[in-house]
Amino acid sequence: MIIKKLSDVVGTEAEVVSENWISRRLLLKKDKMGFSLHDTIIKAGTTTKIHYQNHLEAVYCIEGKGKVELVDSGEVFEIEAGTVYALDQHDKHLLSAEVDMRLVCVFNPPIAGTEKHDENGVFPACLD
């Protein structure tokens, strides 16, 4: 059994900070669960370009308010506490936060731990 607390991750290499977000990675590829699990804060007033070409992601908002815009179609979806969205088609999207949003994110395949989005909003594939 794996037991972790958020406080076990904060301040370690499993807490990845960018200009727009803070991702506290609770379960990673090394945990051998077949997915990774993240507690993520999207900072108020930011918009992040994301395109997970190598991963599927499901997101559950537990605090805050924002929106997801699908780049290809222009569709916009409001996100608030209690909302789940799943990027099941490797959708290019823009994630914006009106106020800080706290999200629980699940990635398949799992990420290794220190990944950040590249200039196209992509996480690299874990090849090992």
From TrEMBL:
Record-level Gene Ontology MF annotations: ectoine synthase activity
HAMAP family named in the record: Ectoine_synth
EC id: 4.2.1.108
Any Pfam family the entry gives: Ectoine_synth
Keyword Isomerase listed: no
Biological processes annotated in GO: ectoine biosynthetic process
SUPFAM superfamilies: RmlC-like cupins (SSF51182)
Function of the protein: Catalyzes the circularization of gamma-N-acetyl-alpha,gamma-diaminobutyric acid (ADABA) to ectoine (1,4,5,6-tetrahydro-2-methyl-4-pyrimidine carboxylic acid), which is an excellent osmoprotectant.
Gene (UniProt): ectC
InterPro entries linked: Ectoine_synth, RmlC-like_jellyroll, RmlC_Cupin_sf
Keyword line: Lyase
Swiss-Prot/TrEMBL catalytic activity: (2S)-4-acetamido-2-aminobutanoate = L-ectoine + H2O
Official protein name in the record: L-ectoine synthase
Similarity remark: Belongs to the ectoine synthase family.
Pathway the protein takes part in: Amine and polyamine biosynthesis; ectoine biosynthesis; L-ectoine from L-aspartate 4-semialdehyde: step 3/3
Organism: Blastopirellula sediminis
